[in-house]
Hints:
Chain A has 326 residues and is of the alpha/beta class. Chain A is 46% helix and 15% strand.
Amino acid sequence: MADLLWEEVILARERIAPFAHRTPFLTCASLDRATANNVFFKGEFLQKSGSFKFRGACNTIAALTATERTRGVITHSSGNHAQALALAARLHHVRATVVIPEDAPEIKRLATAGYGAKVVLCKPNLAARAKVTAQIVKETSAIFVSSHDDNQVIAGQGTAAAELIEDVGDLDYVLVPVGGGGLLAGTAITASHLLPKARVIGCEPAEADDAYRSFRSGKRVEEVSTNTIADGLRTTLGVRNFEVIKSRVFDIVRVSEEEIIGAMRYVWERMKIVIEPSSAVAVAPLLYHHLGIEGRRIGVILTGGNVELEPFFQAVFSNNRRKRGR
Amino acid sequence: MADLLWEEVILARERIAPFAHRTPFLTCASLDRATANNVFFKGEFLQKSGSFKFRGACNTIAALTATERTRGVITHSSGNHAQALALAARLHHVRATVVIPEDAPEIKRLATAGYGAKVVLCKPNLAARAKVTAQIVKETSAIFVSSHDDNQVIAGQGTAAAELIEDVGDLDYVLVPVGGGGLLAGTAITASHLLPKARVIGCEPAEADDAYRSFRSGKRVEEVSTNTIADGLRTTLGVRNFEVIKSRVFDIVRVSEEEIIGAMRYVWERMKIVIEPSSAVAVAPLLYHHLGIEGRRIGVILTGGNVELEPFFQAVFSNNRRKRGR
């Protein structure tokens, strides 16, 4: 029987090809030595807008009809999906509105507005986000694009693993972070077709482990704590995402906040690349030997590089006034 | 007339090929827009040991005779040359001794020792470094490898520009940082042969501008301040280096400490890569429009990525105890 979800990934690849970067893969000899595995990193921190989220947003907008496009798109997000949707919309000449909580970092608002989206601020809670968004949808008939609970978004995210597998060949494991589950579901769909023997593992902060508990119990847990530095993963697992994950994911593992920071620093230090804490969540289980595997070929998606660097630079260079590039 | 310096670069390429990474080049759309140029970055922050210094050290050791190799090599350095020589020596099964000032960051000592070199501490001044080194040379007959004032080292450093030009084609300008002048001299030799019309520009912190003053006056200035965050460039221009630079370099430009920090942050933020302050010195003249050029193809060597991240992480994550990767 045809797998329609996989068909959507194939279509997504065609749709996003003119817009998205085909990001490179990277390796790290010292991590390979430390873990006794061969790890292949997919460099989505180099993706347009700074994260893999561009894939899902771009696919969703590219799939809209001409009539739908005239209505514009809308989402609520304080993170990478906001910037991704704003940029994808601009590249398709579609109007975008993004509802952002008023306590989100100014840099996120500026980046989203910088990509041409209309930014609407709301009170910093999920209910307010949903309410303000619904009101604008009613007034403008803009099309809502979920950050994760959407088949087109899931299909778009599934393209990252497809490229990685094309580039590096067979893999025994594929590790990705899980928040709302868009990337995990998309990766699982792709892997189930291209590498049916590979084990796809979702990686989650222990402080926000709703996906882990949902996976273990078989029942979707809706509450989620936001007490993690992995700001991209403070999202409840989506309904569509959970259905895919239940049947196609091998396991979900949890990592501590210390491990997230340690893995992030390891990657900055050894690989000389800037990844955000949410990306480090999928590196930590390897670095801290949570999986008990050796001699394996492992794919890891480094999901994004949008770190607010101001506090880092402020702390270290407070004696030097900073002159910003124009 | 044959140019023996260029012949040495050609030989260096062959010698280091089995050991060094052929690093990729990178581009940055936002910097291209901001400067109205096309900039091609050579990714030496991804080179073995974390900087281009590996090229010169590797070439020098590879050129030693079997008899010379039995004597071992020695240098004094508190920076990237220490690690580069240690690793290059290990890969050639040659003993290495590195004299390091006792106030150098512990991480540098550990990294150098980690590559298998014998680390000897000395008082933190140039006279002590030279004296301790001379004593060991006398006792062991180890071969001294300068970090910059050496034709083999210069030739090795010249291979980076050769690869960049092979990869990206014609360039109007090539920008590199200048400290002791190994990279600048090597780049100038390479460019004078492969791109005779290109202008090679040395970039220097205004706070340690001995190369600038030497270039302007035509007389090598020996004093240098160490009052710059670009720790790789706190070195006096070498004798051999100055001879090459006088005749083959188009200009030397200076940047402020603020501009170095701003350029470093720009690269971390936009390119998602970790470069050290010395690398940012060659980005700053572009970002801050010091050159007054537009519509040009510009090569920039991103020389290294060895930043001490402890203060950055300490400041931002002081609430989380850090668990380091094994």
